[in-house]
Amino acid sequence: MKKISFIFVLGLLALSFNSFSQIKVNSSGQVGINQSSPAYDLDWFGTGRFWSSGWGQFVFDNSGYGNVVTMHPADDWVGCLGTSSKKFNIIYVDHLIAREVTETSDETMKENIEVLDNSLEKVIKLKGVKYDLKKEYFKSKDSRVNEILEEKRKNEIGFLAQDLMEIFPEVVYLDDTSNLYSVNYSRLVPVLAEAIKEQQVIIEDLAAKIESIESDCCDKMTKSASVSENEGVNTNLKTAILYQNNPNPFKNKTEIRCYIPNGSITSMLHIFNMQGTQLEQIAIVGTGNKSVNIDGNKLKPGMYLYSLVIDGREIDTKRMILTK
Length: 324
Fold this sequence. Notes:
Elements (H helix, E strand, L loop, with lengths): L1 H19 L2 E3 L5 E3 L8 E3 L3 E4 L5 E5 L8 E4 L45 H7 L3 E3 L11 H10 L3 E3 L2 H7 L4 E4 L4 E4 L4 H34 L19 E2 L10 E8 L6 E7 L4 E6 L4 E8 L6 E9 L2 E10 L2
Parallel strand pairs: 2-3
Antiparallel strand pairs: 1-2, 4-5, 5-6, 7-8, 9-10, 11-12, 12-15, 13-14, 13-16, 16-17
Helix pairs in contact: 2-5
């Protein structure tokens, strides 16, 4: 009788343990934690925490963005994903937020190094676009997440990978698991840097040509104020002075001062554009120190020449700049 009672108690305990057990091992050796029918070697439902032999803990819960499944360290600024000698090959993510992202670019790792050329010509061919991602490529089983993704999929800016491949195939990657192309945008940075350098050479060359043209123009329009007595010209013109306008550059108004010597009959101030076309002719009455105010509202922003002409002789020519 005692033996039968003992067996009954053991059976009752076993039944009780099986009813409240949180760990289940099926006939295939698959282990379930809070799962009565595990479908994987380890099938876990709930939160969890892993401790390392060093400092730090790894937590599995739903405390992250949108309260979805989340993996994170137990403390801030703790933990690593992979090491310098044991790296992950590919990590798939949708949105990466980081304080700093660096790419390995050590010279000792590289060979067959060549300087990029014709970068500007290629950059000009790039076509930036604005677009919306299709819903079928941007969706989740969670309706709450779908509401967020619905807004995030719109008004994107970038390149079309297929177009970019024709110009820079080096920055385009094909994922053979999805047959979708992706773009390594950071690889375009050195291309843009070289394109800017090529463009700067063009700018400096054009600036030198403009300076040469302006200098030649001024040399032709500017004549010596000295007049030989043998030419029978009033020698008082030697004392005539044309001052630089003030302020220069100017936006609204500027003042041009000059000195007209005694005995002068006609004095004129001429305003020219840089092509040599006369825009204004202002008469100066009397002799001595004189000034003329120029109204910038009557001119377009740019560079202009002004000349002082006394008794038909050019005394001096200077340049002034009108800004917006």
